Amino acid sequence: MPRRANENKTGRIFVSTSAEVLRYLEELAKIGIHGKTASEVAKTLIGYEVERLVREGVIKIRAGP
User: Fold this and answer.
1) Phi, psi (degrees; rounded to nearest 5) at 47
2) How far is CA 21 from CA 12, 31, 35, 42, 49, in A?
């Protein structure tokens, strides 16, 4: 079954990482819990970390535009 289109506004960033980190992302993608590709895994893990930083008060949520 195809995924629904993302209803949230999105932005694009390009991330360069070490070969070792890329290998870890690829290994996690093989497991499939956080995504099926290294890019999907990176997106998921970045999202988790931002959520953690918000919870801990390191990042403050700003009002809309």
Assistant:
1) -60, -45
2) 20, 16, 15, 10, 16
